[in-house]
């Protein structure tokens, strides 16, 4: 296993008051968070929120205007060569080396990482059912993503940064990716994963932070997210009279204008009482959707208006 040099105490990843401004309010502003050793940390946010800028700062590709980014206590910009060699990194877009075949690119990356044993690399190629013989230019987005994933994981690094890791992957490969992250967690790797998909974050992360318009809205333990998330049910009754009887007994239920005899109810946690109570009414349909993570963060920290992306 590779060990990025530097002190092995304190958080593996630390961002403190990070600011990188691109004008017109774009960029990241006052972002601070830390990822503990062995932790999988989800970095969620809509397009243009600042996830990639933060990841690239951690890789030492971007010099912050203010604040700092540290990995194993080392400043990411000053120690970028060492960091880039030792960390596992999946960029948001894999656009370089287009004329190389996937196999030649993987070999090139393995040499850069001074990888002596190709066993893990070959296992990952098989695991993701990657055909590395084609030129990268001719590969689909999903196939390129697999090349990137093999590169990120092949040296079994202690710290792995993944920028939107499942974009372009089909559902089977998304689920293989999730299993791989769970394996790497068991190995003790520290993982920072940026995403706008709640499911992959929910299934893999111990903690999640939400970023929006370049600012961190808040962070939470995943266990607390699960407890705090509400479900919104739309109940359709057999007729309007039944709906009215339900609405009189439940002041929180809001009648739906479009559904003739429907109401919308938000339920947090107490599903047993909710379902038992419903049994007293004649119901023809029941649908549920989970509060999105964005809705949850906005509800808990709700200081910003809807929208918020600068893209
Ligand atoms: N080199 C640059 N020049 C100008 N603006 C930039 C540059 N890099 C990033 N930005 C801007 O900074 C903001 C944050 O971008 P970033 O790529 O980090 O978003 P993101 O959260 O990764 O979004 P996505 O999910 O779309 O990848 C955006 O408004 C973007 O346009």
UniProtKB/TrEMBL annotation:
It is found in: Cell membrane. It comes from Rubneribacter badeniensis. One of its GO terms (biological process) is response to antibiotic. Residues 13-238 form the ABC transporter domain. This is ABC transporter ATP-binding protein. Pfam families: ABC_tran. It is a peripheral membrane protein. PANTHER family: ABC TRANSPORTER ATP-BINDING PROTEIN, ABC TRANSPORTER ATP-BINDING PROTEIN NATA.
């Amino acid at each position: 296993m590779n060990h990025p040099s530097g002190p092995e105490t304190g958080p593996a990843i630390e961002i403190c008051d990070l600011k990188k401004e691109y004008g017109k309010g774009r960029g990241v502003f006052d972002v601070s968070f830390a990822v503990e050793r062995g932790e999988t940390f989800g970095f969620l946010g809509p397009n243009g929120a600042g996830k990639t800028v933060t990841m690239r700062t951690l890789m030492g590709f971007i010099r912050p205007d203010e604040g700092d980014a540290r990995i194993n206590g080392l400043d990411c910009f000053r120690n970028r060569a060492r960091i880039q060699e030792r960390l596992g990194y999946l960029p948001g877009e894999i656009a370089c080396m287009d004329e190389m075949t996937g196999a030649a690119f993987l070999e090139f990356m393995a040499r850069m990482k001074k990888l002596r044993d190709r066993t893990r690399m070959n296992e990952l190629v098989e695991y993701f059912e990657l055909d590395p013989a084609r030129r990268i230019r001719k590969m689909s987005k999903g196939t390129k993503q697999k090349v990137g994933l093999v590169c990120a994981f092949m040296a079994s690094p202690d710290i792995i940064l993944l920028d939107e890791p499942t974009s372009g992957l089909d559902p089977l490969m998304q689920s293989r990716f999730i299993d791989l992250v769970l394996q790497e967690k068991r190995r003790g790797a520290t993982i920072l994963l940026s995403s706008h998909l709640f499911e992959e974050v929910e299934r893999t992360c111990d903690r999640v932070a939400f970023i929006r318009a370049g600012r961190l809205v808040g962070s939470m333990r995943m266990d607390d997210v699960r407890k705090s998330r509400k479900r919104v049910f739309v109940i359709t009754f057999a007729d309007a009279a039944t709906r009215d009887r339900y609405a009189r007994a439940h002041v929180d239920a809001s009648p739906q204008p479009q559904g003739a005899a429907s109401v919308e109810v938000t339920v947090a946690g107490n599903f047993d009482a909710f379902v038992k109570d419903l049994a007293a009414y004649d119901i023809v349909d029941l649908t549920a959707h989970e509060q999105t993570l964005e809705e949850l963060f906005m509800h808990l920290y709700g200081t910003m208006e809807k929208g918020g992306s600068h893209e």
